[in-house]
């Protein structure tokens, strides 16, 4: 690629970045992953902090030898699996089509 | 407990060494044949580093599980649960939840913006040379600690499984593991290594699944009854085995230490270079997403199994016998296999454990050799001008050198605690790598000075705090006059001043802070490159073109 073509390509990126469609994609992506990250980190550290500083509560049995802490820990597995499932479905359905349309537009510009 | 063997049966080795060696040798031959078959002819740089990005998301997800379920994960967590119960379980939760960071924030964007190495992404819109050098150093540091942990694990396992107790014989086995690993990497590149990881992951999960069913079957599939048996057979711990605090509840320092560890675990995974490298072995960000999905299902499922394996080892083998075995906690899972299925099951599990070490070491070696050849040799030393043949040759030479360093390091470190070495790798990864990865993907203003401050600050602070922690010197001996459990066993040597074993609580926030500080004190900002990076990371534009190189 010559320097000119390289700059042209970068300008195309710059132009696309400022379009409303791209900003909508960016907003949609961040609007999903940031709150989700906030949620699972809070939930994880809540579990860790309770285990460290409230062992009495976490060690209480709820049936047989199963303790609240064990259930809480299994809850971490459940939420991890659930977030994985929800995110993948959302991204496949909502994010990918938008991203592909914008990518295709760049390709068309390059050829045009 | 009629099922428990008496202490007299607890010999230093269990099972039939010949059978163990036989199963391991069969695995090596079988996988080498596959590696030779799938990887023929000369390799381009893309084939060597990333198998040309030709794996499917599912294949890569299984390989990631293979990579991640290292000896420390498999043997270490099962042993930790057997001896410390609930506090051991906390490890597996941190290791699993960490994958959400990779899924939501890192995997897809990384796949869309990089080609071969972590530094590709970090240096994308910053000044190439300084950022690549800094990233290469931190990649080498993290991989080195991880590598040492695996090789040290090999040494400990050998004495248990092969009945080899002599220094020289153990060293020889470490050397053999290293030599086979170098062969995988040189012959197979990333493609061959990935197949080894896939086979190993399936064997490991299947083997653990069988043990789990077997253990649960003994207790009528009643988990609570298994817990009761574990408590009954652990005279010291008793009920405390399913309550928090057995290991980390002793004092405020150990409590805060645990918080520090929890932080390093959850933020470390998405900064491990050999994990990140795996996202380049698939063609698109959709496949990268699929890889992480598969990895999370498999790794999560596996950790649920280790919960049963760990408590099963406490119930059926017992802490006294585990602690008496060479390798201590790491021996819990193999001893349980022997207890259940005799020499044959032990042989299979030990074969799988060796395969685990082999595959993980091979993956680490590819990543580190890619850093030497692609980042340091091609981009920094040759300023991007070297030919592909030269680059691949440098990568191969680097792989051999790394293999030799791993063998020597493994021989030196074979008495060290594996879990400590791995936690160290996670802490360094979370401090030196993750802040820069997140900043460069998400923060528009981020620049070269921010990256250098964060990488060097995270790297130096994490390592310095470890050197001056009780892990290296100054832990009180278990019995008066005995050796210190620290790395330096001479109890008279004590230069520690940092109270925590794990540096994460200090070094991770510090690295984030330094990244911010460096950025806001520098004026550098490249709007064009940022636009290119952001558009490419979100749309996947240019990924195909990058692969054609």
Strand order of the largest sheet of chain A: 1-2
Rg of chain B, Å, rounded: 23 Å
Q: Mean pLDDT score of chain A, rounded? A: 89
The two chains with the largest interface, and their residue counts, are:
A-B, 55 and 57 residues
How far the N terminus sits from the C terminus of chain B, by CA atoms, comes to 65 Å
What's the story with the biggest beta sheet of chain B? none
CATH architecture of chain B: Up-down Bundle
Shape category of chain A: elongated
Q: Indicate the mean pLDDT of chain B.
A: 86
Spatial separation of the terminal alpha carbons of chain A: 17 Å
The number of helical runs of chain B is 20
Oligomer: heterodimer
Structural class computed from helices and strand pairing of chain A: mainly alpha
| Helix fraction of chain A by DSSP (H/I, runs of at least 4) | over 70%
Query: What percent of residues of chain A are in strands?
Result: under 5%
Largest sheet of chain A: 2 strands, antiparallel
The count of DSSP E runs of length 2 or more, i.e. the number of strands of chain B, is: 0
The poorly predicted ranges of chain A are: none
Order of helices and strands of chain B: HHHHHHHHHHHHHHHHHHHH
Low-confidence stretches of chain B: 1-12, 545-549
Number of domains of chain B: 1
């Amino acid at each position: 690629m010559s320097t000119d073509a390289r700059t042209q390509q970068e300008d195309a990126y710059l132009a696309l970045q400022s379009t409303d469609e791209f900003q909508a994609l960016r907003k949609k992506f961040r609007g999903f992953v940031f709150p989700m990250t906030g949620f699972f980190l809070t939930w994880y550290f809540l579990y860790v902090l309770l285990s460290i500083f409230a062992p009495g509560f976490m060690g209480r049995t709820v049936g047989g030898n199963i303790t609240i802490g064990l259930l809480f820990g299994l809850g971490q597995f459940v939420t991890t699996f659930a977030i994985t499932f929800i995110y993948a479905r959302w991204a496949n359905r909502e994010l990918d089509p938008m991203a592909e349309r914008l990518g295709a537009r760049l390709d068309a510009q390059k050829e045009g | 407990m009629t099922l428990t063997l008496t202490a007299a049966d607890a010999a230093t080795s269990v099972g039939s060494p010949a059978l163990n060696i036989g199963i391991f040798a069969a695995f090596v031959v079988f996988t080498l044949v596959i590696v030779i078959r799938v990887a023929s002819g000369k390799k381009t740089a893309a084939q060597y580093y990333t198998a040309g990005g030709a794996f499917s998301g599912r294949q890569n997800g299984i390989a990631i599980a293979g990579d991640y379920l290292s000896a420390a994960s498999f043997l270490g967590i099962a042993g930790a649960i057997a001896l410390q119960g609930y506090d051991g379980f906390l490890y597996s939760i941190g290791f699993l939840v960490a994958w959400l960071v990779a899924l939501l924030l890192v995997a897809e964007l990384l796949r869309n913006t990089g080609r071969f190495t972590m530094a590709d992404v970090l240096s994308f819109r910053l000044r190439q040379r300084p950022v690549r050098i800094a990233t290469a150093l931190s990649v080498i540091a993290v991989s080195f600690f991880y590598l040492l942990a695996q090789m040290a694990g090999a040494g400990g396992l050998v004495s248990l499984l092969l009945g080899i107790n002599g220094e020289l014989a153990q060293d020889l086995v470490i050397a053999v593991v290293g030599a086979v690993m170098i062969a995988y990497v040189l012959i197979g590149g990333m493609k061959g290594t990935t197949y080894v990881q896939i086979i190993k992951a399936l064997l490991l999960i299947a083997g653990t699944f069988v043990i789990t069913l077997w253990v649960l079957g003994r207790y009528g599939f009643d988990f609570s009854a298994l817990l009761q048996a574990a408590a009954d057979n652990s005279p010291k711990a008793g009920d405390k085995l399913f309550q928090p605090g057995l290991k980390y509840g002793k004092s405020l320092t150990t409590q805060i230490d645990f918080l520090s560890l929890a932080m390093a675990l959850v933020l470390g995974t998405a900064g491990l270079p050999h994990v990140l490298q795996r996202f380049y072995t698939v063609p698109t960000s959709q496949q990268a997403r699929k890889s992480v999905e598969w990895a999370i299902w498999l790794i999560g499922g596996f950790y649920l199994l280790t919960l049963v394996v760990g408590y099963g080892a406490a119930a059926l083998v017992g802490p006294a016998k585990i602690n008496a075995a060479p390798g201590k906690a790491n021996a819990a899972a193999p001893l349980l296999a022997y207890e259940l299925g005799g020499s044959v099951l032990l042989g299979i599990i030990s074969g799988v454990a060796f395969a685990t070490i082999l595959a993980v070491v091979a993956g680490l070696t590819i990543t580190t050799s890619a850093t030497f050849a692609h980042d340091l040799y091609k981009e920094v030393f040759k300023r991007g001008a070297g030919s592909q043949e030269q680059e691949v040759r440098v990568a191969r030479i680097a792989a051999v050198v790394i293999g030799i360093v791993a063998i020597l390091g493994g021989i030196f470190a074979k008495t060290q605690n594996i879990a400590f070495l791995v936690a160290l790798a996670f802490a360094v990864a979370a401090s030196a790598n993750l802040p820069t990865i997140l900043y460069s993907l998400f923060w528009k203003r981020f620049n070269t000075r921010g990256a250098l401050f964060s990488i060097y600050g995270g790297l130096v602070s994490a390592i310095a705090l470890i050197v001056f922690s009780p892990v290296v010197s100054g832990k009180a001996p278990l019995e008066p006059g005995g050796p210190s459990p620290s790395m330096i066993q001479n109890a008279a040597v004590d230069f520690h001043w940092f109270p925590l074993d794990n540096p994460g609580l200090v070094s991770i926030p510090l690295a984030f802070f330094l990244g911010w500080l460096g950025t806001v004190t520098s004026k550098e900002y490249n709007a064009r490159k940022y636009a290119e990076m952001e558009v490419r990371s979100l749309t996947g534009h240019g990924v195909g073109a990058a692969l054609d190189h």
